[in-house]
Amino acid sequence: MSGKPQFDDTTVINAAMGVFWRRGFAASSIDELTTAMGLSRSSLYKRFGDKDGLYQEVLGAYTDRVLRRMDNIQAGSRRAQLEALLLEFVPEKLGAAKPAGCMLARACSEMIDLPEGGQAVALEGLTGQRAIINKILNAAAANGELGSTLDVDAMTWHFLGVLQAIMNLPQAGATAADLKRMVAAAMNAWPQGSGCS
C-alpha cells in the first residue's frame, strides 16, 4: 500500500519522547531522533514535517498522559485527593527506564528555544495542570473543606510549584522519602481545622 507509513506512530513517538525528555528540544539532533525512532530522515520528514512538528506531537502526547494521570486521582476528601495527586508523582525507583524529571517542566525552562507550536503545547500543558489543581481547591471551598476567605488562586500556584518540584528534584538527589516529607510540609498550606480532613 504505497504511501502508508510502515511504522507504528505510538512506538516512534515514544522513542522520540525519550530523546527529547533527556536532551531537551535544542540539544536533540535529527540523527539522534531517527536512530532512536528507527526511521530514515525522509520518513521522519514525511510523517512529522520537521523536528518542530515531531516535538509538538511528542510533547502533546506526554502532556496528555500527565493530565490524565492527574485527573484520575480520587479520594474521600478534596484535601486527601490533592495529597494523593502529589504523592502519585513521587518516583519510588530512581534510575528507572524513563528519564528523570518532567518533560513539560524541561520544555518550560527552554521556552525561548522552542518553536511556536511547542511553546503553545507547553503552555497548554501547564495551564491544564493548574486547572486540575484549581478544580480540587475550588471544590474544597464549595463543600466547606476550605474557608471562604482563603486565596484559592495563590494556593493553586503553590501546589503547582510543589508538583513541579516533585517531578524534578530527583535529578538533584532528592529521594522518595525526601519528597514525601516535602509533600507533608506543603500540605500545611491547607489550614488545620478547615472543614473536613
Question: Could you please describe the fold and organization of this structure?
Answer:
The chain has a single domain (9-189), classed as Orthogonal Bundle (Tetracycline Repressor, domain 2), CATH 1.10.357.10. The longest helix is centred in the middle third of the chain and has 28 residues, at 116-143. The chain has 197 residues and is mainly α. Helices cover 66% and strands 0% of the residues. The chain is elongated, with a radius of gyration of 19 Å. It has helices at 9-27, 30-37, 41-48, 51-71, 78-88, 103-109, 116-143, 152-168, 176-186. Helix 4 runs parallel beside helix 7 and helix 5 (78-88) packs antiparallel against helix 7 (116-143).
User: Strand content of the residues, in percent?
Assistant: under 5%
- Tell me the name of the CATH homologous superfamily: Tetracycline Repressor, domain 2
Q: Write the H/E string, N to C.
A: HHHHHHHHH
Overall, the morphology is elongated
Which key terms come to mind for this protein?
single chain, Tetracycline Repressor, domain 2, mainly alpha, 197 residues
